[in-house]
# Entry
Amino acid sequence: MICLVNITMEQYLDKPEKDGTKEAHPAWWRAHHSTMNVCIDIFTGIVSGKDDKTRAFSNANLEKVRRAIWLWKETLEEMAEKNTTEVGKKAKAVLKETNELIS
# Structure
């Protein structure tokens, strides 16, 4: 079989120093977009109520962020439910707006 693609091995190899630039290896961009989609799914799952806190991530940093978002959400929900002052009204408004944004 004859291969008509004329590239050198140097052109084919991954070059980490080019990551995030227009010269980045296509696989870098695929991984970047895939990772962003995972993060978006995590956030929207928490805000929408689809994430019921039973799942956990093996990546410690990602799990810390997930737990932090949960803490924010739970705190806002508690403030909205129990506080009838301006703070409670603001918490309700933030929860409502957040849910509308991800719907």
